[in-house]
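Key result, reporting period 2: structure in, sequence out.
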């Protein structure tokens, strides 16, 4: 079964300095039909204006992934980390028992375009931690960027979930096999994709269950995120 989540039906928040699209209920946007999928709780597409951003705020008991698509995002947290996440990079923060962090646009002229992803951990009260990485070998394949065992040098998340990213050229195709009793969420980050008979565009998502093989093609090229979930 494949259930589509069209981009234009996502929640929208206009804060002036922040334009956000929510695949699942978040903040002031609440839709009981879209509260998450399996352990995937938040999938936000954010655009942050120059010299703006999220001031220090707390999190706990959540695996938080950030993927910067364009621009530069400055991160600081109560664990003592301070870094700039560049376009194409991924960051993982395990909030665990509690962490405070800020996310600011590092440019005074260019916006930041990013995805923010929350995955529920497999247990509460874990020690907070942080990782940041770049994976440039995503062309033409699903490259694991986050996993519970850090496979392929990926970021480590505390949940039975594997996050993979692919960059596809025009006309390319991919196949992903889902193990029995696994589920998937496919997010079209940019470009277009055809999933079986379904046509998807940038911002569209698809919840997938009871399917063993995913056949994906693109006409014009695409960046894709695939969540392989228990």
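The corresponding designed sequence is given below.
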């Amino acid at each position: 079964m494949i259930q589509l989540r069209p981009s234009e039906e996502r929640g929208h928040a206009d804060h002036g300095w922040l334009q956000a699209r929510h695949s699942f209920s978040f903040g002031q946007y609440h839709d009981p039909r879209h509260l998450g999928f399996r352990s995937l709780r938040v999938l936000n597409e954010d655009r942050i204006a120059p010299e703006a951003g999220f001031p220090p705020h707390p999190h706990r008991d959540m695996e938080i992934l950030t993927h910067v698509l364009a621009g530069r995002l400055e991160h600081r947290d109560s664990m003592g980390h301070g870094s700039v996440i560049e376009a194409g990079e991924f960051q993982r923060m395990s909030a665990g028992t509690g962490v405070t962090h800020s996310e600011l646009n590092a440019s005074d002229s260019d916006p930041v375009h990013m995805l923010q992803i929350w995955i529920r951990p497999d247990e509460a009260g874990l020690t907070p931690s942080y990782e940041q990485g770049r994976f440039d070998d995503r062309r033409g394949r699903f490259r694991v960027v986050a996993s519970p065992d850090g496979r392929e040098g990926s970021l480590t998340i505390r949940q039975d979930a594997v996050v993979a990213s692919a960059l596809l050229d025009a006309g390319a195709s991919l196949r992903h096999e889902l193990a029995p009793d696994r589920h998937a969420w496919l997010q079209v980050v940019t470009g277009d994709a055809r999933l079986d008979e379904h046509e998807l565009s940038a911002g569209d998502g698809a919840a997938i269950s009871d399917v063993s093989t995913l056949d994906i093609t693109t006409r014009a090229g695409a960046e894709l995120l695939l969540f392989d979930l228990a």
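The first strand starts at residue 2 and ends at 5. The chain has no helices and 21 strands. This case is discussed further under Risks and Mitigation.
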